[in-house]
Recover the amino acids of this structure.
């Protein structure tokens, strides 16, 4: 642990604000490639808070390759569930039959699924273990209260009165990033009037690795396969609902919640049971107008918060990490100032267009499918049917979902920087 009271000893190369998956991955990526860099992570959450997270996340194939290159995938893989198939339906909640309009086989290469479901605690724990093994200090329970970029470095003030100095500050502090605001970076932002309900559901029959996305009038309802656990067969639910209805469901009677859940989940996997406390959070689009400013780079939700309709939020964050690490490591090898704005602008140019494109895509998809307008429903169902009959176009979508399209950073290809 860093002796934060001894300010003279607190000269770092990189300070990461945020000890979530993206922040930890940024620290590990940089330290593994450049062991000489002095790196620390600071997080506002109390020590051990991450262990209470019972959610799971979809990790795309490219992110799995990156985690493997970082030496953490082997720790996660035994409890990860491969997504071997995905189907898409478009219907009303009360429809007795939900016709399948689109199906995807779940491989980007033989034996390589396009995504896995991973428990958040397993992912965070594996990244923390690697960070500690590499000698990265993790300072928990204290927030960044201010920072001052000047000259060849940035002075970071912590809420407990301590002070750290670094050449580069990485903001990985979430969609409501305080550091982004401190840097004066504006955002494009709007709310969808929807909330995302998340919970784990236990069911009688096995899911066989199939993920399903049901487009319903109030928003998409996704079922994502999990590794069987003590509750038996399990799936993770990501359920978009109108905000006022979502809050009533989460706060209301358990029997009412399970009834509404069953209407959407169906009985194809037998009887179902809610295995943990459902939670809801508001959904919106947030895009930072810049991903970098003097001495600071934004990654993950601090740079972009998008609708979960395509399951790409966390994977976009890992793309940020891979790109930033490659830019910073190459600059350091050339003897350049890793926190200089011209270096950070290379990262911004690499990531910003792709991120805006994904944000616009998820926004359009949500607006197109989260309604019950008859003519629009007919048009979108015809579109889904056409995609189903075009193998090359389906392959393109799989490559997009796997994170292996476009100008892919080395880590996402499974290559060392």
């Amino acid at each position: 642990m860093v002796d934060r009271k001894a300010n003279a000893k607190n000269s770092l190369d990189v300070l990461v604000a945020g000890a979530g998956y993206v922040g930890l991955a940024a620290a590990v990526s940089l330290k593994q490639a450049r062991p000489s860099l002095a790196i620390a992570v600071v997080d506002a959450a109390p020590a051990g808070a991450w262990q209470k997270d019972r959610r799971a996340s979809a990790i795309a194939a490219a992110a799995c390759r990156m985690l493997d290159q970082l030496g953490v995938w082997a720790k996660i893989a035994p409890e990860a569930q491969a997504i071997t198939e995905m189907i898409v339906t478009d219907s009303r909640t009360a429809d007795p039959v939900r016709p399948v309009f689109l199906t995807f086989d779940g491989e980007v290469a033989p034996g390589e699924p396009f995504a896995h479901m991973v428990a958040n605690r397993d992912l965070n724990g594996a990244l923390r273990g690697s960070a500690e093994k590499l000698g990265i200090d993790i300072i928990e329970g204290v927030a960044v209260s201010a920072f001052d970029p000047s000259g060849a470095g940035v002075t970071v003030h912590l809420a407990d009165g301590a002070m750290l100095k670094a050449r580069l500050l990485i903001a990985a502090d979430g969609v409501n990033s305080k550091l982004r605001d401190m840097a004066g970076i504006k955002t494009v932002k709007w709310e969808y009037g929807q909330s995302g309900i998340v919970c784990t559901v236990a069911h009688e029959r096995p899911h066989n690795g199939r993920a399903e996305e049901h487009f319903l009038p109030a928003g998409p309802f996704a079922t994502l396969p999990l590794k069987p656990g003590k509750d038996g067969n399990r799936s993770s639910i990501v359920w978009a609902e109108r905000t006022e209805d979502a809050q009533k469901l989460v706060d209301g009677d358990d029997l009412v919640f399970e009834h509404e859940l069953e209407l959407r989940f169906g009985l194809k996997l037998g009887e179902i049971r809610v295995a943990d406390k459902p939670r809801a959070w508001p959904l919106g689009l947030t895009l930072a107008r810049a991903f970098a400013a003097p001495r600071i780079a934004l990654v993950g939700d601090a740079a972009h918060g998008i609708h979960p309709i395509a399951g790409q939020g966390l994977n976009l964050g890992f793309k940020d990490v891979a790109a930033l690490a490659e830019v910073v490591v190459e600059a350091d090898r050339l003897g350049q100032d890793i926190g200089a704005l011209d270096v950070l602008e290379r990262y911004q140019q690499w990531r910003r267009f792709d991120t805006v494109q994904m944000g616009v895509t998820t926004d359009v998809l949500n607006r197109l499918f989260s309604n019950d307008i008859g003519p629009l429903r007919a048009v979108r169902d015809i579109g889904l049917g056409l995609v189903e009959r075009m193998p090359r176009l389906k392959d393109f979508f799989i490559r997009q979902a796997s994170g292996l399209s476009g100008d892919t950073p080395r880590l996402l290809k499974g290559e060392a920087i």
